[in-house]
Amino acid sequence: MPKLYDKDTGKLVGEITAEQLEFLNECLVEETDADRDYYMDGPVIEFLEEEGGDAALVAMLRAALGGREEMDVRWEP
């Protein structure tokens, strides 16, 4: 299963399904084919929810963001 990590701290955010990763890839910008990170803030997470993002994925991202205004998450296969 793919895993999401907080890019700044290296802390595991959680495991996601292949379908959730595909959803992130479709909705968010990857600058190159080798790019494996995404910018997150409140509006981005709201966008993912509005686009039909899985409730568990949205909740995981909100929890990871916590009280911060923004963060970057990276994924690994």
What is the total tally of β strands?
4
Q: Main β-sheet, in a few words?
A: 4 strands, antiparallel
Helix content: 25-40%
Number of helices: 3
Outline: globular
**SSE-based structural type:** alpha+beta
Strand order of the largest sheet: 2-1-4-3
For the record, give the distance between the C-alpha atoms at the N and C termini, rounded to a whole number: 6 Å
Q: What sequence of helices (H) and strands (E) makes up the elements?
A: EEHEHHE
The pLDDT mean sits at 94
| Uncertain residue segments | none
Beta-strand residue fraction: 25-35%
Structure, described:
The chain has 77 residues and is an alpha+beta fold. The chain has one domain (3-76). The protein has helices spanning 18-27, 42-50, 55-65; strands spanning 3-6, 12-15, 37-41, 70-76. Strands 2-1-4-3 form a 4-stranded antiparallel β-sheet. The longest helix is centred in the C-terminal third of the chain and has 11 residues, at 55-65. The radius of gyration is 11 Å and the shape is globular. The mean pLDDT is 94.
Task: Please name the defining characteristics of this protein.
77 residues; 4-stranded antiparallel sheet
Give a short synopsis of this structure.
The protein has about 80 residues and is of the alpha+beta class. It is built from three helices and four strands.
